[in-house]
């Protein structure tokens, strides 16, 4: 699943805001019991590992000049929730840039 969050901040500002707010990602996941770990394998990619509802979800966020591009691989058991998860990313993603 891929979700784009547009921005007008430029790549550097968007990257710094994402870095400084990445610790709040778990708060944005419905259910309240999620654990999120992040790493930065490259300057413009934040790797995600999310554990919630007994499931592990991997993904990454690419920081681009005009958008954040969320890529999330859902396990088969959560594939039916793709619209809900995509909607949550669209709703919560811009808050990571404020």
Quaternary structure of the protein? single chain
Strand content: 35-45%
Secondary-structure class: alpha+beta
- CATH topology, which one? TATA-Binding Protein
Structural description of this entry:
By secondary structure, the chain is of the alpha+beta class. The chain has one domain: TATA-Binding Protein (2-Layer Sandwich), CATH 3.30.310. The protein has helices spanning 11-21, 82-92; strands spanning 2-6, 35-42, 45-52, 55-63, 67-73. The chain has a five-stranded antiparallel β-sheet with strand order 1-5-4-3-2. It is globular. The two termini are 24 Å apart. The mean pLDDT is 92.
Short description:
By secondary structure, the chain is α+β, with helices and mostly antiparallel strands.
Secondary structure topology:
Elements: E1 2-6, H1 11-21, E2 35-42, E3 45-52, E4 55-63, E5 67-73, H2 82-92
Antiparallel strand pairs: 1-5, 2-3, 3-4, 4-5
Protein name: Polyhydroxyalkanoic acid synthase
Pfam families: PHA_gran_rgn
Keywords for this entry:
alpha+beta, 98 residues, five-stranded antiparallel beta sheet, TATA-Binding Protein
